[in-house]
Amino acid sequence: MTMDITQRLEIEAQCTRLINHYANLNDAQDWDAVAELYTEDARFGRPSKPGDLVTGREAILASFKARPPRAQRHVIANVVVDVEDADSARAFSVILLFQGEAAAEGELPAMSANSPLVGTFRDRIVRTNEGWQFAERIGGLDFRP
After folding, report:
1. Cis check: omega of the bond before 116, within 30 degrees of 0
2. In angstroms, how far apart are the furthest CA atoms of the chain?
């Protein structure tokens, strides 16, 4: 079956939304919701440790919950989604991560001296019964902090 432009654009939009939604949930530190964006057998590599892959949704969730709280804001740019077929796509995006120590209620956090971090994500995204999810999300940094 040949995919028409409307179908291709719809998949690109859904995958781009997934990438942006991930950043918003990550910044809210809603780790359960972040983990639900991955397939059960997904692989994840943090931009700061791309070779240290975490495999499986439960292990990904545990890796996020093990992190100490911090103030953070991800900015996602230059998202390009390449649709492979009706159920799979690959994506590339650039990330800026601003971070700092968690602040008291009502206070603004001080930005960390190593902010912003600049990096990328390369994703393999698949359509599942739960919608579009990350099967693989591998990050990398473009500059040393």
Report:
1. yes
2. 56
Model's pTM, two decimal places?
0.93
Cα separation values, 120 from 9, 66, 116, Å: 22, 23, 13
Give me the CATH topology for the region 5-141. Nuclear Transport Factor 2; Chain: A, (3.10.450)
pLDDT in tens, the chain (145 residues): 578 999 999 999 999 999 999 999 999 999 999 999 999 999 999 998 888 999 999 999 999 999 988 899 999 999 999 999 999 999 999 999 999 988 788 888 888 888 999 999 999 999 999 999 999 999 999 998 7
Query: Comparing C-alpha atoms, which of 88, 114, 89 is closest to residue 100?
Result: 114
Tell which residue, 66, 121, 113, has the closest CA to residue 96.
Answer: 121
Q: Domain segments of the chain: what residues? A: 5-141
